[in-house]
Amino acid sequence: MQPIVLVIEDDDAIQGIVEDALREGGFEAAIAKTGEEAVTLLKGRLIAYRALVTDINLLGRFNGWEVARAARDVDPNFPVVYMSGVAAHEWPAQGVYNSIMLHKPFAPAQLTTAVSHLLNGLLAVGSNRA
Amino acid sequence: MQPIVLVIEDDDAIQGIVEDALREGGFEAAIAKTGEEAVTLLKGRLIAYRALVTDINLLGRFNGWEVARAARDVDPNFPVVYMSGVAAHEWPAQGVYNSIMLHKPFAPAQLTTAVSHLLNGLLAVGSNRA
Amino acid sequence: MQPIVLVIEDDDAIQGIVEDALREGGFEAAIAKTGEEAVTLLKGRLIAYRALVTDINLLGRFNGWEVARAARDVDPNFPVVYMSGVAAHEWPAQGVYNSIMLHKPFAPAQLTTAVSHLLNGLLAVGSNRA
Amino acid sequence: MQPIVLVIEDDDAIQGIVEDALREGGFEAAIAKTGEEAVTLLKGRLIAYRALVTDINLLGRFNGWEVARAARDVDPNFPVVYMSGVAAHEWPAQGVYNSIMLHKPFAPAQLTTAVSHLLNGLLAVGSNRA
Amino acid sequence: MQPIVLVIEDDDAIQGIVEDALREGGFEAAIAKTGEEAVTLLKGRLIAYRALVTDINLLGRFNGWEVARAARDVDPNFPVVYMSGVAAHEWPAQGVYNSIMLHKPFAPAQLTTAVSHLLNGLLAVGSNRA
Amino acid sequence: MQPIVLVIEDDDAIQGIVEDALREGGFEAAIAKTGEEAVTLLKGRLIAYRALVTDINLLGRFNGWEVARAARDVDPNFPVVYMSGVAAHEWPAQGVYNSIMLHKPFAPAQLTTAVSHLLNGLLAVGSNRA
Questions:
Q1: What is the CA radius of gyration of chain F?
Q2: What tens digit of pLDDT does each residue of A24-81 get?
Q3: Chains with 3 or more CB pairs closer than 8 angstroms to E?
Q4: Which residues of D touch C78 (CB under 8 A)?
Q5: DSSP character for A82?
Q6: Among candidates D21, D108, D113 on the partner chain, residue whose Cβ is nearest the Cβ of A120
Q7: Closest CA to D9 of D119, D121, D102, D118
Q8: How confident is the model at residue D126 (pLDDT cuts 50, 70, 90)?
Q9: How far is Cα B114 from Cα F14, in angstroms, rounded to an integer?
Q10: Cα dist from E47 to E38, E118, F56, whole Å
Q11: In terms of CB atoms within 10 Å, which of A116, B117, D22, D92 comes out highest?
Q12: Using CA of residue F55, residue F58, residue F63, residue F68, what is the dihedral sign?
């Protein structure tokens, strides 16, 4: 049984690269074409997704920043990896805590390392969860 | 010349504790009573604030999450410390990256350590700033 | 209302230094003279201790390594700071994760910084809490 | 000459996955079937193992927490990765410092990333080694 | 378009291992045979190298420590991975900040994890970049 | 017995601030007026200095970057805090690993937090010390 990673990416070429990288790392990739679809899947909780890998500029009503916040509403520790070229500079203002921003173009190893690092619980936190 | 920290807190008792803690640590505290006032000060850039310390539930139109995003729009590395009791659980979804969430009640040393840690540049980042 | 730190130290001189350092940082120190007493207090949960500061070689049946494990049984994220001279080399084998080892002699600022750092949630974790 | 990783896992299926993952990453896996065997190998120092990857519930007298402590007695910086399903919640109390806990099921990439991260010396330490 | 990593290694066997590891991770490796060549390439800025992977003892006038400093003069955040056997002990005195030292022999996964980790921006920094 | 911190600063005003901050944190400050004097004291090993706090532009032959490297030659883990205004931008190329760069002007709490953080062993390392 492999950890399932939810991927939101409408560019077929990049989607293929992401799927290949995750599969080679031993993850299963589940694809959502829009932010709405991803939010519905995350909130439905029918499948135990373990991480979100998302582009920023998405088809439909939600962008990647908003999907990540919805995922964190469902699970406060949910691992998030953003991928972007043009929107990467917005990450310090829009990205959730303990997420990773991959600037396009990136190597597949950067993606699997980022997802693994988050799943291994290795990013510093900054809240005492009193 | 002391580093100036912008503080948004409308509870006078906590504001006093925060001011005392910062002053004892050698910082100067500048107080804003509302989020609007803070955003105006940050965007005006008349004073070189070095960090933001903000409550979450603020008087007026903006909450602390929104003020922090506005501060990061102005400066992508701007240090942010949130203080809250009831809203602390929203931090994983609403807090900006490389920020620190202090759960009330906290000790003054936690505040000065948090501000110093951010100003010393010691929180891990998660973007390659390519 | 100040965060309460449970301190186990039978050397009166060091106990005084630790109490003074914590009080100056805005913490309240609660003293236990033995490991048994500390474990009883932590398991009783009558007082919401926020951190443990403990010597290693203690009077009575438990040493500091054992008290820390008992504290983590009660709360998996419980902040732990060990203090020792001679037993510090045992820390890599005996210390719990996300704890800090202070080698005696240490400066009071090292103690308040260590406690604050743990309460601020800033040590890296290494578990995905799936 | 490849770095040798000592693996303790009696479930043949998981052992195979771990071996494959390590080999693909360029490590050599040496298998021990019990904790006693592992402790004997580590203390014998005939082979320079570079990391320990261990299940928690082991055949024989020792569990994974105990083997890790024995490994750290031999080498205070010895990299340790634990793997478990049911016993993962004990890690905050039983795991040694600077170790990584992998919750089953995990992807092979998580394992190679964890071992590499520890061998690269990238986990924060918490002792001044004065 | 793959991220390009500049590699300085005159031992053909190790150069081959490094190239294979980077290529499998989805990076492109550009080889320099000497430190002078590497410094010329970095300063020329014709190609946007994303990271430096360098041996310490190099043919010619510059050693790896000096090439890394030259790279950081060009770009203060330039990712650096050193590889060495005999010179690894000089790293605490000679290595630049936010670099990684790989002790030979290392596994290919350690190299791709190290390069990815630096490109993902995950090493702690220690400067407030005021 | 207090931990002794070696301070190199020829500006009397800043030297006074540094001394006061260290003393209030429970450290003892030993002053060197030049880099040569500091290197002689560190290499002589008559006093067990626990950390170095140094300006960059020094009177005499050595600058702060060179003194830090000399300190690390004596002890590979020696904690180093640099202080500078104009030379801070050279830190990524010239600063040793696991050091902290304080940009002038800084608050005294930043200095004691930085020294404490290094003495507490909390900066990530990047070498496997195989």
A1: 13
A2: 999 999 999 999 999 999 999 999 999 999 999 999 999 999 999 999 999 998 999 9
A3: A, B, D, F
A4: 92
A5: E
A6: D113
A7: D102
A8: low
A9: 23
A10: 12, 19, 33
A11: A116
A12: negative
Q: Where along chain F do its domains lie?
A: 4-119
* Residues 6 or more apart in contact with residue E101 via CB below 8 angstroms: D121, E81, E82, E84, E88, E91, E95, F126, F127, F128
DSSP state for residue D89 in the 8-state scheme: G
Contact B14, B104 (CB under 8 A): yes
Neighbours of chain A (3+ CB pairs under 8 A): B, C, D, E
Task: Tokens for D31, please give them.
Answer: 């298998």
Q: What's the average model confidence in pLDDT over B60-75?
A: 96
Q: Give the separation between CA A30 and CA F34, rounded to whole angstroms.
A: 62
Tell me, yes or no, if D126 comes closer than 8 A to chain F by beta carbon: yes
Q: How many CB atoms lie within 10 A of CB B86?
A: 9
Distance set, CA E89 to CA A23, E104, E114, F73, F99 (Å): 38, 12, 19, 9, 17
Which residues lie below 8 Å from residue A57, measured CB to CB, with a gap of 6+? A63, A64, A84, A86, A87
Kindly tell me the burial class for residue C10, based on how many C-beta atoms sit within 10 Å of its own C-beta (0-12, 13-18, 19 or more).
Answer: middle
Given a contact cutoff of 8 angstroms between Cβ atoms, the answer to whether F113 and B112 are in contact is yes
Whether a cis peptide bond, with omega within 30° of 0, leads into E105 is yes
| DSSP codes joined into one string, B82-99 | EEESTTGGGHHHHPBTTE
| Whole-number Å distance between alpha carbons of A13 and A83 | 14
∠ CA D17-D20-D21, rounded to 5°: 85
CB neighbourhood size of F13 (10 A): 8
Surface of B (11-30) touching E: CB under 8 A: none
Chain C within 8 Å of A122 (Cβ-Cβ)? yes
Q: Which one has a higher pLDDT value, F130 or A122?
A: A122
Q: Rounded to the nearest 10 degrees, how much is the dihedral formed by the CA atoms of D4, A114, C118, C47?
A: -100
pLDDT of residue A130: 39
The bridge status of strand B4-8 relative to strand B49-55 is parallel
Tokens for A120, please give them: 């291994």
CB contact under 8 A, D92 and C98: yes
B119-124 average pLDDT score: 86
Q: Answer whether C2 sits within 8 Å of B109, measured CB to CB.
A: no
One-letter amino acid at D36 equals E
The DSSP call for residue C7 is: E
Average pLDDT over residues F90-111: 94
Going by the DSSP 8-state scheme, the letter that residue F117 receives in this structure is H
Residues 88-107 of C with CB under 8 A from D: 88-89, 91-103
Dihedral angle of Cα A71, A75, A77, A82, to the nearest 10 degrees: -10
Q: What is the DSSP letter of E88?
A: G
As a whole number of Å, the CA-based R_g of chain E is: 13
- Helix pair angle (F108-119, B108-119), 10° resolution: 90
> Which token pair is D23?
């080999």
| Chain F residue closest in CA terms to B119 | F110
Mind spelling out the 3-state secondary structure of D97-118?
A: CCEEEEECCCCHHHHHHHHHHH
Contact B98, F95 (CB under 8 A): no
- For the domain spanning D4-119, the CATH number is 3.40.50.2300
Q: Is E39 helix (H, G, I), strand (E, B) or coil?
A: helix
